[in-house]
Amino acid sequence: MAVLISDSCINCDACIEECPATAIVNASESPLASGEYTYVKPDKCIECVDAAVPKCADVCPTEDCIVWDMPYIAEYNDYFVHSDRYVIREHKKRGLMSPEVNPMPWREGISMEQRELRVSVGQTLKLYN
């Protein structure tokens, strides 16, 4: 995972259909008890590393709604597993699909500082004028 949908989300769900990894669900399907807006499953997000920009951010009508988060890799296992911001799915055979078990691709060109600050995907990739 490396993108997070912020509380500026208007729940238009435009990003859901665009996600090639089926990592985004609407608020009513969010695994969070307090799921008020569209949710990105961290164990499925691929940051659209094969595209110029993440497809969710490209179609989002709300500037700065989609922000960078830490990469879903073993180094940040505790960050994701012990967070109240995420629910990691459990596989029947493989167990918890944590970053240690199931690391995901990430954009190395986005600095850890930008990720820690949750800088907008659109700002870093120049989607806005």
What is the secondary structure topology, with strand pairs?
Blueprint: E1 3-5, H1 14-18, E2 24-25, E3 39-40, H2 55-59, E4 66-68, H3 77-81, E5 90-91, E6 95-96, H4 112-116, H5 121-124
Antiparallel strand pairs: 1-4, 2-3, 5-6
What features would you describe in this structure?
This protein is an alpha+beta fold. Helix content is 19%, strand content 11%. The protein contains 5 helices and 6 strands. Strands 1-4 form a two-stranded antiparallel ribbon. The chain has a two-stranded antiparallel sheet with strand order 2-3. It is globular and about 40 Å long. The chain starts with a strand and ends in a 5-residue tail after the last helix.
Question: Keyphrases for this structure?
Answer:
129 residues, alpha+beta, two-stranded antiparallel ribbon, 11% strand, globular
Topology as a string of helices (H) and strands (E): EHEEHEHEEHH
How would you characterize the largest beta sheet? 2 strands, antiparallel
Q: What is Rg?
A: 14 Å
Unreliable sequence segments? none
User: Strand content of the residues, in percent?
Assistant: 5-15%
**Averaged pLDDT, please?**
93
Subunit organisation of the chains: single chain
What strand line-up does the widest sheet have? 1-4
Question: What level of helicity do the residues show?
Answer: 10-25%
How many strand elements? 6
End-to-end Cα distance = 26 Å
SS content category: alpha+beta
Count of runs of 4 or more consecutive helical residues: 5
Categorize the overall geometry.
globular
